[in-house]
Amino acid sequence: CIERHQTGYSVHRKILDEGSVDEMAEKSESKTLLSEKVRKSVRCSGPRLKECLLRSVPLLSWLPRYPIRENALGDMISGISVGIMQLPQGMAYALLASVPPVFGLYSSFYPVLIYFIFGTSKHISIGTFAVISVMIGGVTERLAPDSDFMIWDNVTNSSNVDIISRDAERVRVATAVTFLAGIFQILLGLVKFGFVVTYLSEPLVRGYTTGAAIHVIVSQLKYTFGISPVRYSGPLSLIYTVLEMCYLIPETNIGTLVVSIVTIISLILTKELNAYLSKKIPVPIPVELLAVIIGTVVSWQVNLGEKYGVDVVGIIPSGFQPPVFPEVSLFGQVIGDAFALSVVGYGIAISLGRIFALKYGYKVDSNQELIALGLSNSFGGIFQCFAISCSMSRSMVQESTGGKTQVAGALSAIVILFIVLWIGALFEDLPKAVLAAIIYVNLHGMMKQFLDIPVLWKKNKVDAIWVATFILTVLLNPDIGLAASIGFAMLTVIFRTQLPTYSLLGQIPGTDIYRPLEDYNQVRQVPGILVFRSSATLYFANAEMYQDAVGKKSGIDIAKILSAKKKQEAKRERIEKENAKKAKKKGVNMEPEQKDIAFVELEAEPEPSHPRAIILDLSPVNFLDTVGVKANLYLQYSGVVDNLQTGGFFSDKVTNSCLFATIHDAVLYCQSARAQEEVMYCTSIKPTETHAF
Questions:
Q1: SS3 content of the chain, % helix, strand, coil (to 5)
Q2: Counting Cβ atoms within 10 Å, is residue 450 exposed (0-12), middle (13-18) or buried (19+)?
Q3: Which pLDDT value is given to residue 682?
Q4: Residue (of 215, 193, 212, 192) closest to 204 by Cα position
């Protein structure tokens, strides 16, 4: 490396403009027609059909080559471990979705099997997820509030909620929004819209999930304290809910609170023990499962539900629900929520999937992931499931216990099948406070994301969009908060183009390298030549600021020059008209060559303090519109990318001869005698055209 840095080189060549470069490199002008692209995309052959089938159903490509000896044991242990975790998490996250706990078990079975067939990530654990569940809970409680199911109880002379009817309606709402979210994901996948996740930057996703976690925590406080607050919806609903909770704290059920505290402390201690023993035991202690079993046994023995008024899970029917197509009449009311669910669920799954793919050296197909998640949700919606994504905690367990392929996910679904068919009814006495405690403890990873703030602030203050996303999500709810956060992220991009760094470049002595004068002590400005660079692209939103910056850096009053040029142009046009009239009266025909000649009086000697030439370094510019072109008056271009070639975009006077391959080519050209002559001539060029100055 040291020898390479010490090696010198010398290059002798002509000054190259873009026209010369195109000629030397033999630039290809051939472009594939749209009709040819369409014809190629619909062309069908045996190999192409096979490739399409294997790409659409990845199971067919990897399962026949599944290495049983290497992967079977690890996948089996991992699948059983994840399936055991799915039981408490599925029931707990069903509470977030405001549906009976058994529907969380359904959501841990059908979608997992569908993803096993169509998914491309080998390590993520598909199933219920806290953020997705709380978003669904917002929809179900908005469209099926308790107030719509109040019935009069003649025994107690009070109004009570018809829980059976309410839960049935909420399940219908949840399945409708889940089915529609799946359809959105399938459509986005078919049109190759997997790149949409690029608009969900990592700081945005982490800020969003942290804000959603706050909603999750607040939504579970009623199970922790055993109170029944009024459900609020819309912006600021979380604030109103917290205030309502504070008002109802005196009504706390002590038995429920004790169960919550004991469970939370036990879970935290056991998880710390798990972390301590992680290298000593092959499989982590199933903390959540133990909490569910112990909580159920204690509740059954002590009769917490009847003696102390602790809210329990209740009836868990054995077996699965028959398939029912979601109510189409609800689609119009949940279409916005469904789209938000589709984007958030996909964003979380693909982000985690790419992390594992990078770690283990395989590729995750973003478009196929959209289709796989869409099929999981749409198919699951028909079988009474609510929307799913991947869980970070389960995915980490699946990886750490030896899971190497999607087989681990399929085995976890078999564990859930066994639970639903035979032992689900044993958990009817499980206190809901235990499930809420499981949710709290599983969110500790998201709470640690607050540590991102100081790191992001030091590295790049624009990435503090984390904070804005968090605040918007907390105040506006997860659905509206997501849209507002993406809008805010787009604004940061616009602001960056409107607040760029403007620099004058100088030459490092003895080299063809140019660097900002203000950043380097040994960089020297080329006499009589000003090299200007902007760190942002150039378009209508910042064109005027760009022009002002050029004037400020060069010390030239651009407005004054523009005014003089307009007067000069008007004078030129007036002289041409007068000459034409005189020629017509005298009956003299002007030669064709003379028609293109403008006899214009040039200005006096230019201001000595002004540079003889201004060169624009457009290497940071990735696109340029007509407004940007007009803002660049009488300027020499350098560092131009392919999409800035003339191609009919610039005026006829701005040809490839004005666009140089490097800054140094432009500088050498401006220093030549030919350039000096052109500089004087170009004082008569119209100000709306781009040229050398």
A1: 65, 5, 30
A2: middle
A3: 34
A4: 212
Residues 575 and 577: their CA atoms lie apart, in Å, by 5
Quick one: pLDDT at residue 184? 95
**HSE (CB half, 13 Å, CA atoms) of 619?**
15
Could you tell me how many helices (H) and strands (E) the chain has, helices first?
Answer: 29, 10
Beta strands of 33-113 (E only): which ranges?
Answer: none
Residue numbers in the chain where pLDDT is lower than 50: 1-2, 592-604, 633-652, 673-674, 677-693
Contact 295, 438 (CB under 8 A): no
Q: CA end-to-end span of the chain, whole Å? A: 43
CA distances to 126, 180, 383, 385, 566 from 114, rounded to whole Å, are 10, 17, 12, 13, 69
Tokens 């003339």, located at residue: 646
Provide the token pair at 594: 């003379």
E strand or H helix that includes residue 72: helix 68-96
Are the CB atoms for 455 and 466 separated by under 8 Å?
A: no
SS3 363: coil
Question: Model-level pTM?
Answer: 0.74
If one counts every other C-beta atom within 10 angstroms of the C-beta of residue 114, the result is 22
What's the confidence (pLDDT) of residue 672? 76
Give the span between the Cα atoms of 357 and 669, in whole angstroms.
50
The residue written with tokens 């006096």 in the block is 604
Q: Which residues contact 457 (CB under 8 A, 6 or more apart)?
A: 464
- DSSP letters of 620-644? T-S-B-HHHHHHSTT-EEES--GGG
User: What is the C-alpha to C-alpha distance for residues 381 and 181, in angstroms, rounded to an integer?
Assistant: 9
Q: In 3D, which of 502, 488, 505, 492 has the Cα closest to residue 461?
A: 492
Distance of CA 149 to the CA centre of its chain: 39
Of 433, 465, 39, 90, nearest to 262 by C-alpha is: 433
Integer-rounded Cα Rg, in Å, for the chain is 34
Q: Token pair of 294, please?
A: 């112990």
